[in-house]
Amino acid sequence: MKRTLTYILFIVLVVGFGALSGISNMPGEWYQTLEKPFFQPPPWLFGPVWTTLYVLIAIAGAKTWLAAPASGRMQVWFAQMALNFLWSPAFFGAESSILGLIVIVPLLVAIILFIRMSWSPDRVSAWLFLPYLAWVGFATLLNLSIVLLN
Fold first, then answer.
1. Would the CA dihedral through 99, 134, 63, 59 be positive or negative?
2. What is the DSSP letter of 93?
3. pTM above 0.85, yes or no
4. Most buried residue, 30, 99, 103, 118, by most Cβ within 10 Å?
C-alpha cells in the first residue's frame, strides 16, 4: 500500500505542479510577436506531451524515492524538477527567451545526469527519462532558435 501511495503522490504532485506552472505562465502577446523557427510544433501538442512526460518523470521519481530517498540520484531528480518548473516562469512569465535558455540548458544537463546515475541501479527509471531527454533536447533547440531569431 505504501508503494502505491508513493506512486500516486508523485504523479499527482508532478502533474499538478506542471499544470500549475503552465497555466500560470501561458504564452501571451509577447510570445505571439516573436519570430519562431519553421519546426515550431502546433500549440495543441504541448499539453498532451507534457502530461505524458510528467507521468513518466513522476514514476521514475517514485521508483528512485522508494529505492534510495537520500541518494544523489534523488537529489538530481529534485533539481531537474525545480529547473523544469522554473522554465515557464523564466521564458513566458519574465518574457525572456534568454532567461529561458539559461534555465533549460542546466535542465538538459540534469536530465542526462539522472539517466546516467540511474542506468545501473534502476534501468527502468533511466528509460522513463529518455522521452523527456528527447523532448527537452528539442525544446532547447527551439528556445535557442527563438533567441537567435529575435
1. positive
2. I
3. yes
4. 118
